[in-house]
Amino acid sequence: MATPVLLPGNMCDERLWTAEVRSALPGCVDAALTRDATIDAMAARVLSLVEGPVVPVGFSMGGIVALAMARAAPERIAALVLLDTNPAADLPERAAARPRQQADVRDGALERIVVEELKPNYLAAANRADAALLSLLRDMAMGLGEEVFVRQSEALRTRPDQSGVLAALDTPVLIACGAEDRLCPPAWHEAMASAARNATLHVVPGAGHMLPLEQPARLAAILTAWRTA
Known about the structure:
By secondary structure, the protein is α/β, with parallel strands linked by helices. Helix content is 46%, strand content 13%. It is built from ten helices and six strands; from the N terminus they run βαβαβαβααααβαβαα. Strands 2-1-3-4-5-6 form a six-stranded parallel β-sheet, with helices on both faces. β1, α1 (19-23) and β2 (29-30) form a beta-alpha-beta unit. α4 (92-106) runs antiparallel to α7 (146-157).
């Protein structure tokens, strides 16, 4: 039986995945993406830690790692779940901004960057004043700390274009995103679904980029229906 592997996003920890979502993925295990400064190294570490066939369940940066796992070891991928992610290389404007953010974080600005620049812009309009959700996003990032931020930022900046991975993959792929995701818009996910050989696409209302936390019950239902179809 294939093992679902939960791959969190940038500056997120295992709290990204709620009990509802976990219940839709029996036997799932968490993978930390905190020790490496390239996407390929992250993918290799996850593949080395889990034996046999796997179902990478990747959110945002975790989705990029999931695609790298499929690129490196397609024979081990039983199925693939991609949430609010992007198969392309870093956009030029984002790549250009990352060294400044890395320098600022090294100078002690992690909390400011998380609170002011990143996480609030990830949420659907109705969720941007959700104090509990904003607090969780801050706590995950601050708990991981400055060095993890720099490593993950550099991994995102230097990541390869993986746009061709889905077209070469025979296994089932579930693609889902928030309807209000401004970081990785629905159009990107529609393109991924069109490129894949066997894809199911869901665009979820009431969620921005943080779909697993903004609409966990809806995501759990999507995962259950897809897994049991």
